[in-house]
Amino acid sequence: MLPSVKIKLHVAMRNFYIKVHSEAGYRLGLRMRGVAWSFRRVHRTEFDHLQLVGGMVKRGFDLGSASLALVIVSPLFLLICVLVMIAVGGPALQAHQRVGRGGRTFNCLEFRATVDTQDCGRSNPTALAVLTRDRPPGPDLCFTPVGAVLVKLGLHKLPQLINVFRGDMSIVGPNPLTPAELKTFGDAAEFYLKSGPGLVRPHQVSGSAPASYADWMALERHYAENWSLVADLRVIVKTVSTSRVAARERTKRTVGTRGL
Fold first, then answer.
1. For residue 106, what is the DSSP state?
2. Is the pLDDT confidence value at 156 over 60?
3. Name one Pfam family in it (predicted).
4. What's the half-sphere exposure (Cβ side, CA atoms, 13 Å) at 66?
């Protein structure tokens, strides 16, 4: 019987023992596999470290941005709260369950833009079905005057800054999805769960919404795999620029209508 030896390898901060026969060829083969395994382990460890650092940078950026934004918009936030409470006769905020980074569910906040769903449903069953599924509001829903303006200006999502501050969301990221919607993504859900939902959508930097589901997922995957702080800043700048252009267009249309 061939004698055996014990080879001790230190791989990725672990003591790894291999018991092999003293035959040169067999021992060499095991050593080669051990080296290859060691390389993969170290590479994976470095990759995980980069992901950890990137996540810390992104979280720091989100926390700082959300804190500053909440301080700046706090007077507007309080004013909208009062107006919404008067308009709906109840709480100013509403929460919808969404899936966050890593699959953790959270309550996604919004200003209430419609009257109570039961009151709305008595006169409009279709509106009730849409509201309970939290779909984008249509022109036939029970909007309050204040709610209609908030949705038109995108201010109904202002409370999501609180979600960003709490760590539920990011400043930049995919659209928040319900658990049911996430199931339809299949394997592509990995990229959503990796980056987590955000206030500003990555596709906005392209200048237009994705033309198809495949295009949308391609953009989401590219964002998740190539995240950088510079990329987030580009998305934010592009969004602000687009919003300003849209505001000027609305002003021109309003002035033109009054002139007629």
1. E
2. yes
3. Bac_transf
4. 24
Could you count the other beta carbons within 10 Å of the beta carbon of residue 95?
13
pLDDT for residue 44: 42
Q: Which percentage of the chain shows pLDDT scores above 90?
A: 23
* Cβ density class 136-146: b for 16+ within 10 Å, e for less: ebeeebbbbeb
* Residues linked to residue 7 through DSSP beta bridges, in sequence order: 18
CA geometry: angle 102, 174, 49, nearest 5 deg: 45
| Helix/strand/coil for 11 | strand
Q: Over the range 147-164, which residues count as b (16 or more CB within 10 Å of their CB) and which as e?
A: bbebbeeebbbbbbbbbb
Question: Tell me: the pLDDT tens digits for 116-148?
Answer: 555 554 444 444 444 444 445 544 457 788 988
Confidence of residue 59 (pLDDT cuts 50, 70, 90): confident
Cα diameter, the chain:
103
CA distance 21 to 16: 17
